[in-house]
């Protein structure tokens, strides 16, 4: 019987998600009506029969910790193993996690207690369905010391990823981290299987290396290759999304409303589990017009909803139109408001006759790298006063209230932030 | 009787919850052919027993005994270890109490009092001072702590919950009580000519010691019904009525009534009262994804549960978890239970489809006077 432990890296900030990750870690970002990003990786683990899981947290972990709890929804509340949250600590080799490899390095004692044969390193912020057993089988049958899962991407996108160059037997010959001139179109998914003893040796060496960034893709993997170790690439061809940007986050949510979405949430043999608040089923009233959308428990829909993902407990008033948008848990949209191409975070209050996502597109003045692609983002707990007109590519910050609005016209590309 | 220092209002009481869930119902037809009425599905994702159980848990009760007898498999499956109600505990927790064979007796439960009497061990053990007895068939949301305070402040021996019934209830189906102030002076079971419109709701609250005394005194001599025992002690004990004025329905009064109760979830006030006042209603989780409503769907005045996929027309209906309504089909004034499928072009009207029913393409199923009831796993 092989012993496998999974470590989920969940400490990332996810800066490119702007206000969505200002107060919560990226793996805790809500997704698909009732989930949070980490649910997909956690569910993949338990569906693959991996019940020993460490979740490495660092950035803003409260909501994430609360969500995972003792792992009840994933059947991870167990006597042996289960889920363990691994925050940074002091003493010994402790301290802030300086990089992905350092985070694992600092928790070697935790892994050693299980004395596993294999360690699966995962990211807590990707959306996909994958049986890790197949990958571990592949790892074993190749006699590999490390196996990296990868996916085919277009060569124009390749420079955003860690790129793998492998020979016909899938043995990796070169690894380029975010190369300007990619030599292949096989991108690393940040999913690794390592022989634990082998990984430990390299982590200890990396820990002593003062010049290292302590990152798997940047430092550890290239070092292993340099030493001519047995690294293999495992091709994955299923659905996989890194929802790292506002645009890709929005797209992969809206994708779920298609007649046959690329991600099957309905597969009875591969369920995704999550922790949610108990609410009654969704209600559409006599005036509701809901098409091509996902609506969740606790919703009360009176207006129109089209191509949108509506999370739990959302109220949509009479005469509203919600189009191509994401509205998160417990937000309220009052009568006759129109919302297009927007992401509305949790507990937002949008008063009557508000328009969001109107006018011509314009680059965002707060951060045009983060807020791009015609999508207006409203941060959690914001209150938008009656009659406000918000353009495209705008940002309404977390906790904004009526007094923060100098004008009720928010032109495309501008922003409103809460003044403390 | 023991001299117990009477605690003041808001005092911490240790309470044992008992839920009577063994009843056989003749009025729900195919819906109860394979399950007891407490396990009948309601409101898209719940079972009838969820309401009483959640009310108890929300009032801080952490030890609950469920008395089962008639076809309990579905109920047991639903309750499991009590996880969803936080009753999977070392202290207290959920106890499923079935009739059993023993060295001396081998009886089915012969009535409510007998059922509790046969499980006297649960009463004898444990630190509880009081017992709250409810039924698994009732749909209501209550803050039971108000009942506890009422019981203490009126120095009641027994508190019974009652409700002033309007014309939508058939009074001849209930125990009708007469009050003097808040004290109950008479109780008449299912009277032909009711003396008042105040009906007993089948919910009892009393000290454990008193319950044990009453059971030991009356059950061995052949009285198996708890209400009858109380009636015969009306003059000797201070029996108080707590008047409940919220939504309250009994699920097993008939198919038409059952459909109507389910339709009540389409009413905003009732939805708010049942699901969002005084804590939540908990139920077994199924981990379905949120419902998906398609391009040509039309969902009007209806409830849609997790796991549903709707591409047809749905009006004035309740879709339970995992129900599928395919393109070109129509569902009106119906209940479509878990994982039932309405195929292309079919019409379902005034009907109750139990779980995993398939209505094939172009089929028409229309209930005339009474709603059509389709048994579990039927293919039409």
State the CATH class of the largest domain in chain B: Alpha Beta
What is the CA-CA span between the terminal residues of chain B? 62 Å
CATH superfamily of the largest domain in chain B: Spore Coat Polysaccharide Biosynthesis Protein SpsA, Chain A
**Strand order within the widest sheet of chain B?**
5-4-1-6-11-8-12
**Overall 3D shape of chain B:** globular
Beta-strand content of chain A? 25-35%
Number of strands of chain B: 28
How much is the average pLDDT of chain A?
93
Count helical runs of chain A: 8
Any idea what the shape of chain A is?
A: globular
Radius of gyration of chain B: 22 Å
Oligomer class = heterodimer
Q: In CATH's first tier, which class of the largest domain in chain A applies?
A: Alpha Beta
Going by CATH, the homologous superfamily of the largest domain in chain A would be Spore Coat Polysaccharide Biosynthesis Protein SpsA, Chain A
Helical percent range of chain A? 10-25%
Main sheet characteristics of chain B = 7 strands, mixed
Structural class of chain A: alpha/beta
Distance between the termini of chain A: 57 Å
Share of β-strand residues of chain B: 25-35%
Mean pLDDT of chain B: 91
Folded structure, characterized:
The complex is a heterodimer of chains A (420) and B (380). In chain A, 18% of the residues lie in helices and 27% in strands. Chain A is an alpha/beta fold and 420 residues long. Chain A folds into two domains: 4-255, Spore Coat Polysaccharide Biosynthesis Protein SpsA, Chain A (Alpha-Beta Complex); 278-420, UDP N-Acetylglucosamine Acyltransferase, domain 1 (3 Solenoid). In chain A, strand 9 and strand 10 (172-177) form a beta hairpin. In chain A, 52% of the residues are buried. The model of chain A has no long low-confidence stretch (mean pLDDT 93). Chain B folds into two domains: 15-276, Spore Coat Polysaccharide Biosynthesis Protein SpsA, Chain A; 292-374, 3 Solenoid (UDP N-Acetylglucosamine Acyltransferase, domain 1), CATH 2.160.10.10. The N and C termini of chain B lie far apart (62 Å). Residues 1-7 of chain B have low confidence and may be disordered. Chain B contains nine helices and 28 strands. In chain B, 48% of the residues are buried. Chain B is globular, with a radius of gyration of 22 Å. Chain B has 380 residues and is of the alpha/beta class. Classes of the chains: A alpha/beta (420), B alpha/beta (380). The interface between A and B is large, with 36 and 41 residues. Strand 14 of chain A pairs antiparallel with strand 16 (302-304) of chain B, so a sheet runs across the interface.
């Amino acid at each position: 019987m092989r012993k496998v432990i999974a470590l989920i890296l969940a400490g990332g900030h996810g800066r490119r998600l702007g206000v969505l990750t200002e107060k919560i870690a990226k793996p805790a970002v809500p997704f698909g009506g009732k989930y949070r990003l980490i649910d997909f990786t956690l569910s993949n683990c338990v569906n693959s029969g991996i019940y020993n899981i460490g979740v490495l947290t660092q950035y803003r972990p409260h909501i994430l910790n609360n969500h995972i709890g003792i792992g009840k929804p994933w059947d991870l509340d167990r006597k042996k193993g289960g889920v363990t949250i691994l925050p940074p600590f002091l003493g010994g080799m402790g301290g802030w996690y300086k990089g992905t490899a350092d985070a694992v390095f600092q928790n070697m004692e935790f892994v050693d207690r299980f004395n596993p044969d294999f360690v699966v390193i995962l990211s807590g912020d990707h959306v996909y369905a994958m049986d890790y057993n197949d990958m571990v089988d592949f790892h074993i049958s190749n006699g590999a010391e490390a196996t990296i899962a990868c996916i085919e991407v277009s060569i124009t996108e390749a420079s955003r990823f860690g790129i793998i160059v492998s020979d016909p037997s899938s043995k990796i010959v070169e690894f380029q981290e975010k190369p300007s001139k990619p030599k292949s179109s096989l991108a690393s998914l940040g999913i690794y299987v390592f022989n634990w003893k082998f990984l430990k040796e390299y982590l200890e060496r990396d820990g002593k290396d003062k010049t290292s960034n302590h990152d798997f893709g940047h430092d550890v993997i290239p070092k292993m290759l340099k030493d001519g170790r047995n690294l293999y690439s495992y091709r994955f061809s299923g659905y996989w999304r890194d929802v790292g940007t506002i645009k890709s986050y929005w797209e992969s949510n809206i994708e779920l409303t298609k007649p046959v979405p690329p991600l099957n949430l309905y597969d009875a043999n591969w369920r995704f589990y999550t922790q949610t608040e108990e609410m009654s089923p969704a209600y559409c009233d006599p005036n509701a017009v809901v098409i091509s959308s996902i609506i969740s428990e606790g919703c009360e829909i009176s207006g129109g909803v089209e191509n949108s993902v509506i999370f739990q407990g959302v109220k949509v008033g009479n005469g509203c139109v919600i189009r191509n948008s994401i509205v998160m848990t417990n937000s309220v949209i009052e009568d006759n408001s129109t919302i297009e191409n927007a992401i509305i975070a949790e507990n937002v209050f949008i008063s009557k006759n508000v328009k969001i996502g109107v006018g011509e597109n314009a680059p965002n003045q707060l951060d045009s790298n983060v807020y791009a692609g015609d999508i207006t983002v409203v941060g959690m707990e914001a209150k938008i006063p009656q009659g406000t007109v918000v353009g495209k590519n705008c940002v309404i910050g977390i906790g904004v209230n009526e007094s923060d609005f100098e004008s009720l016209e928010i032109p495309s590309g501008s922003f409103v932030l809460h003044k403390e | 009787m023991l001299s117990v220092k009477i605690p003041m209002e808001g005092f911490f009481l240790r309470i044992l919850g008992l839920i009577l869930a063994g009843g056989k119902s003749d009025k729900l037809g195919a819906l109860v052919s394979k399950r007891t009425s407490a396990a009948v599905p309601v409101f898209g994702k719940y079972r009838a027993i969820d309401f009483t159980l959640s009310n108890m848990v929300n009032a801080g009760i952490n030890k609950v005994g469920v008395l089962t007898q008639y076809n309990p498999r579905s109920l047991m499956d639903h309750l499991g270890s009590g996880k969803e109600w936080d009753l999977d505990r070392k202290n207290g927790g959920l106890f499923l109490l079935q009739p059993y064979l023993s060295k001396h007796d081998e009886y089915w439960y012969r009535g409510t009092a007998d059922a509790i009497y046969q499980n006297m061990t649960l009463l004898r053990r444990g630190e509880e001072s009081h017992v709250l007895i409810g039924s698994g068939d009732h749909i209501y949301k209550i803050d039971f702590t108000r009942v506890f305070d009422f019981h203490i402040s009126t120095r009641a021996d027994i508190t019974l919950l009652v409700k002033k019934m309007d014309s939508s209830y058939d009074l001849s189906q209930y125990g009708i009580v007469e009050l003097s102030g808040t004290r109950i002076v008479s109780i008449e079971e299912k009277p032909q000519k009711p003396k008042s419109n105040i009906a007993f709701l089948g919910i009892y609250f009393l000290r454990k010691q008193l319950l044990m005394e009453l059971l030991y005194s009356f059950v061995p001599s052949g009285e198996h019904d708890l209400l009858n025992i109380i009636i015969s002690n009306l003059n000797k004990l201070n029996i108080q009525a707590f008047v409940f004025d919220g939504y309250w329905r009994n699920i097993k009064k008939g198919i038409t009534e059952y459909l109507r109760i389910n339709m009540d979830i389409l009413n905003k006030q009732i939805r708010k009262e049942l699901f969002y006042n005084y804590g939540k209603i908990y139920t077994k989780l199924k981990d379905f994804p949120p419902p998906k409503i398609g391009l040509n769907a039309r969902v009007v005045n209806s409830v849609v549960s997790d796991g549903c996929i709707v591409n047809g027309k749905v009006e004035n209906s309740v879709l339970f978890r995992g129900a599928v309504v395919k393109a070109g089909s129509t569902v009106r004034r119906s209940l479509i239970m878990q994982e039932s499928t309405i195929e292309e072009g079919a019409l379902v009207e005034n009907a109750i489809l139990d779980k995993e029913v398939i209505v094939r393409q172009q089929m028409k199923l229309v209930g005339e006077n009474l709603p059509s009831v389709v048994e579990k796993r039927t293919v039409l």
